[in-house]
Amino acid sequence: MQHQNLLRRTAIAAAMSLPLVFVSCDKDDNNNDPKNITETVVDGANFTLLEAAVVKAGYATLLANTPNLTVFAPTDDAFRQLDLDGNGTPDLDTEAKINALSGASLDLLKSVLNYHVLASRVPGSAITAAGVQANTYATTGSGPALFAKLVNGKVFINGVEVVSPDVAASNGIIHVVNKVLLPPATTITGAVAGNPAFSRLLYAINRVKTGGGLDIAAALNGAGPFTVFAPTNDAFAASGFATDASLDGVPVATLQSIILHHAVGARVFSSDLTAGNVNTLLTPSDNSKTVTINLTGPAVYGSGNGATASNWPKVVAANLMMNNGVVHVIDRVILP
């Protein structure tokens, strides 16, 4: 989910001692020993922003000397796509921006890097079609889990494709990914409540509860796992609900059915989607109500959205990790 106001830009802090760690790790043309993870990152032509992040976080020695690590390494293009504060502008697309991080922004960078590291060696051959769950690196205890799965012969981590698996290093293994993995910071309910773009969805959820319906917020704050296809305010407007007041005319039972039709009782990443019908939290009370997945888009729609593809809700942002599941942002409301 969008992390709001977590990245504050400051003057560039020149961490003079940290780059020396990398200088000492430069490739020696006369040394045929395998490179460690830090050296592999430094020597990688497509890891300049990852290198800057590792230096800034002070993780060069950790990734050079710690044995038996698995690192999911985002490419430069992955960093250039990263919009942490949700304002439409990439946040870590230059070395200067990374070097300028401090305080809470630097803490966030460290947590993001931690989420790319496993404290054990996991080759691609260990990842199966049934899926593998592993906790990530943390300075104390264990970090939040990553979910790996083999889909059609390709490995995906939290729905993100591994574009180059099994890059060997002397102290572990590297899998190259094409997106930066973001650790979960809250539950699905917390993410909806904390993001102004979902204020109309939150209004609808609260109206159901105050009108005598289910406490959907409490349910989506539970252990789960859940998958929620979350319509933004613009999605509600595109579906005929331009204001909060426009929802007041919808019967509570109908509004409850609409909201439940956006939630699935399982963790489903975009890489797990297959064409066909899927049960939602509405299905147990009405077994005729399922959502249809169409991989073109992909689109996720109910029978109330009609047969015209232009009216089908499309996934516009996928695989947003939460403590109790995953969120996919959609551009229209799913209608039962």
Mean pLDDT: 89
**N- to C-terminal distance:** 25 Å
Low-confidence stretches: 1-30
Largest sheet descriptor = 7 strands, mixed
CATH architecture level-2 label of the largest domain: Roll
Brief sketch in words of this structure:
The protein has 336 residues and is α+β, with helices and mostly antiparallel strands.
Tell me about this structure.
- This protein is of the alpha+beta class and 336 residues long.
- It has two domains: 17-177, FAS1 domain; 188-330, FAS1 domain (Roll), CATH 2.30.180.10.
- Helices cover 28% and strands 22% of the residues.
- The protein is built from 13 helices and 14 strands.
- The strands form three sheets. A seven-stranded mixed sheet has the order 2-1-7-6-5-4-3. A four-stranded mixed sheet has the order 9-8-14-13. The protein has a three-stranded antiparallel sheet with strand order 10-11-12, with no helix packed on it.
- β13 and β14 form a beta hairpin.
- α3 (48-57) packs across α7 (103-114).
- It starts with 16 loop residues before the first helix and ends in a 6-residue tail after the last strand.
- The model is unreliable at 1-30 (pLDDT under 50).
